[in-house]
């Protein structure tokens, strides 16, 4: 009789910083129903992985769930997999953090479930060849990746019914291939079709195994799947069918199979992830054309060609999205600071009791906001903010060890984002300010240490492959239909009403950005990006000079430019940070715009500031106030004349920013909203609130315009 083993490996994850209501919904719609069904089907055996953020939430909210899992494990139904505790992309974090995060998960599983895990779930199945060594050194015996990785080296599906051995510098690791066909069949196709596929893969040897590793959330959380899997009973039917076919179809956890059976052979895999991830990692235009090409070849049945097609490389997300790269490099910077603090603590005989920030650092390594695909990821402002919050807290704790309890002021120049140009950081015990002199002299990060928040965790509007696909769909009035449940990788959905034309940004949505604009420009022109500047000052390099002055530090930035009529202008901007242990943070800005030409010049000088205070969805906790008494929610659009005072804040974050400007400014205010994709479909997503301060000028040769701004941060007042 032909036989085959089947191993199901389900990965359950919620990002660091996700809303408690989302955790609860996923628990009710996917995690709990699966455990309840396993309890009634004792013959079903599988491998499960839960990430650290989910474990932490379950302990606090549903500790009985862990007791039920422990019971399933003790009777041999469930094998628990380890991983990086906070679900990092392992190749993207330092080796010391790889070992530390895996060790933390191993310790947790050992203490809670009395078992030492031998297998590891690889976040997003992002594999790089050198991983075999640090994983083996961490005590990992096996992992699984997608069949995509194996097909890249020429293996066919019939050769992927077992595990292979790989090695790096003599350190070996067992690797199982997860079959894409099974991933696309379960739970989207009829149960009978899944069984038929497994029969097709079975043979007389009795040593073959078909592996399906995928997200547990697709069994209840993804659109339409709760009704499909649980209310209409697909999962019940599936488990029953597995039991009914147990004479030839044997369920087994991956670790047990690895102990009982020899490897198929030896393999060396290239850098890869699952098939869809490799599409998403490509630049937008390339991703669009690559996906269309694949669909045409699939429709034509050209598997012989498809086997040789591969997409991009996960690390290219750090090129595709400069904001993700900045977060990643800030994480590496924080890592160095944390480990310096740990080394100092170990040398310090006093052994202070406070943490040096390692746990906070690890939480900031959660992979979700470092990339973007069909899930929101980087585009979710609250998830980005959560990672930055932990980075800021990690550095705050490390600084307590490195600098001591007394007020301090420090500055440094370093090529933080590895673009070949140095950035400037100015730090005190209460705040950190990061500048890019090479790119508009802009302020790219403003950290408030006490609340643990980066005010500039923003995101620019840029083209995406799915923008082109959606515009094609809308123009052709295509209809996907609702006859059958759809895999989220199939087609596009529209979750909210979308604008007829998508707007894109010409520069990063950071702060301390300057514009010289025509007098007749409108707010609509600026918000849509449909305007022209004589020079894009926001992208130009500035000369820089730092001047310490006792309890303060001044960053001077300068560049020469011109207007539309070629009139020469010089823009000087100085930002002064003063040591003040009694505030959350703040600084003073002085602008000097000088007509260095021989003809009169006129226009609008604009100072642009973008802040992310989680004001999306008309959040009632996020507000602005003007000196004239006007107040509203943060994600509104308006314009006001002659404004000297502006306040914006978020009560939940307990942060309020105050701005004083002299002279008063014309104020334009609008939300920066991207068109982003998620499992539920395309939607407008709030990324920041843009404040543009406008100052009309008319300068004779040699004359100048002087402007002073004062920014301060404080806790939100009790009444607003």
Features:
720 residues, twelve-stranded antiparallel beta sheet, alpha+beta, 7-stranded beta/alpha barrel, Beta-galactosidase, Chain A, domain 5, 30% helix
- Please identify, by name, the CATH architecture of the domain at 4-273: Alpha-Beta Barrel
Shape: elongated
CATH topology of the domain at 4-273: 7-stranded beta/alpha barrel
Text of the CATH class of the domain at 4-273: Alpha Beta
- Helix count equals 20
Task: Please give the largest β-sheet.
Answer: 12 strands, antiparallel
What does this structure look like?
With 720 residues, this protein is α+β, with helices and mostly antiparallel strands. Among the domains are: 4-273, 7-stranded beta/alpha barrel (Alpha-Beta Barrel); 513-714, Beta-galactosidase, Chain A, domain 5, CATH 2.70.98. It is 30% helix and 28% strand. Strands 16, 17, 18, 19, 20, 21, 22, 23, 24, 25, 26 and 27 form a twelve-stranded antiparallel beta sheet that branches. Strands 1, 2, 3, 8 and 9 form a five-stranded parallel beta sheet that branches. The longest helix is centred in the middle third of the chain and has 26 residues, at 322-347. The radius of gyration is 28 Å and the shape is elongated. Mean pLDDT is 92; it is low at 478-483.
């Amino acid at each position: 009789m032909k036989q085959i083993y089947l191993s199901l490996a389900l990965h359950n994850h919620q990002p660091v910083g996700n809303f408690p209501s989302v955790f609860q919904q996923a628990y009710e719609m996917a995690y709990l129903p699966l455990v309840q069904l396993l309890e009634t089907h004792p013959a079903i055996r599988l491998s499960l992985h839960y990430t650290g953020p989910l474990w932490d939430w379950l302990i606090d909210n549903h500790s009985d769930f862990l007791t039920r899992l422990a019971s399933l494990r003790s009777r041999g139904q469930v094998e628990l997999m380890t991983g990086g505790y906070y679900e990092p992309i392992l190749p993207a974090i330092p080796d010391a953090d790889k070992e530390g995060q895996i060790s933390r998960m191993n310790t947790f599983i050992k203490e809670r479930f009395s078992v030492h895990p031998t297998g590891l779930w690889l976040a997003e199945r992002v594999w790089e060849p050198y991983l075999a060594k640090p994983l083996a050194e961490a005590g990992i015996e096996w992992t699984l990746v997608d069949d995509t990785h194996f097909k890249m080296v020429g293996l066919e599906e019939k050769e992927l019914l077992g595990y292979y051995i790989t090695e790096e510098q003599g350190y070996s690791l067992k690797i199982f291939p997860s079959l894409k066909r099974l991933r696309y069949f379960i739970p989207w196709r009829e149960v009978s079709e899944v069984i038929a596929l497994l029969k097709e893969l079975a043979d007389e040897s009795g040593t073959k195994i078909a592996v399906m590793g995928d997200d547990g959330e697709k069994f209840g959380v993804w659109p339409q799947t709760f009704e499909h899997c649980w209310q209409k009973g697909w999962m019940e039917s599936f488990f029953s069918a597995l039991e009914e076919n147990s004479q030839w179809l044997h369920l087994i956890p991956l670790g047990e199979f690895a102990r009982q059976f020899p490897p198929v052979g030896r393999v060396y895999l290239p850098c890869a992830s699952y098939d869809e991830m490799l599409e998403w990692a490509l630049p937008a235009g390339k991703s669009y054309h690559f996906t269309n090409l694949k669909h045409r070849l699939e429709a034509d049945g050209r598997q012989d060609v498809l086997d040789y097609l591969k997409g991009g490389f996960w690390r290219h997300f750090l090129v595709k999205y400069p904001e993700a790269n900045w977060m990643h490099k800030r994480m590496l910077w924080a890592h160095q600071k944390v480990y310096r603090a740990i080394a100092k603590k170990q040398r310090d005989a006093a052994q202070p009791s406070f943490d040096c920030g390692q746990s906070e650092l690890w939480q900031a390594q959660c992979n979700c906001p470092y990339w973007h695909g069909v899930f929101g990821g980087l585009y979710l402002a609250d998830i980005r903010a959560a990672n930055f919050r932990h980075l800021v807290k990690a550095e705050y704790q490390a600084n307590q060890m490195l600098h001591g309890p007394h007020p301090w002021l420090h500055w440094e120049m370093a090529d933080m984002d590895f673009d070949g140009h140095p950035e400037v950081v100015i730090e005190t015990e209460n705040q950190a300010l990061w500048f890019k002199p090479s790119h508009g002299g802009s302020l790219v990060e403003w950290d408030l240490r006490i609340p643990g928040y980066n005010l500039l965790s923003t995101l620019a509007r840029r083209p995406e492959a799915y923008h082109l696909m959606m515009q094609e769909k809308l123009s052709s009035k295509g209809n996907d239909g609702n006859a059958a449940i759809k895999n989220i990788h199939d087609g596009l959905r529209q979750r909210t009403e979308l604008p007829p034309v998508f707007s894109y940004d010409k520069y990063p949505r950071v702060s301390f950005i300057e514009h010289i604009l025509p007098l007749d420009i409108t707010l609509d022109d600026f918000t849509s990006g449909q305007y022209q500047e004589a020079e894009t000052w926001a992208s130009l390099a500035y000369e820089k000079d730092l001047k310490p002055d006792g309890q303060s530090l001044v960053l001077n930035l300068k560049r020469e430019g011109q207007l539309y009529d070629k009139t020469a202008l010089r823009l000087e901007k100085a930002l002064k940070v003063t040591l003040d242990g009694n505030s959350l943070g703040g600084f003073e800005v002085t602008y000097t715009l000088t007509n260095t030409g021989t003809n009169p010049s006129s226009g609008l000088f604009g100072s642009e500031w973008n802040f992310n205070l989680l004001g999306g969805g008309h959040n009632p906790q996020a507000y602005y106030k003007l000196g004239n008494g006007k107040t509203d929610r943060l994600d509104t659009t308006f314009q006001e004349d002659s404004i000297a005072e502006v306040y914006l804040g978020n009560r939940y974050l307990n942060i309020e920013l105050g701005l004083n400007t002299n002279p008063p400014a014309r104020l334009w205010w609008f939300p920066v909203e991207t068109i982003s994709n998620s499992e539920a479909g395309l939607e407008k997503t709030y990324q920041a609130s843009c404040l543009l301060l406008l100052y009309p000028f008319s300068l004779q040769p040699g004359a100048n315009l002087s402007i002073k701004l004062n920014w301060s941060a404080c806790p939100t007042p009790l009444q607003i």
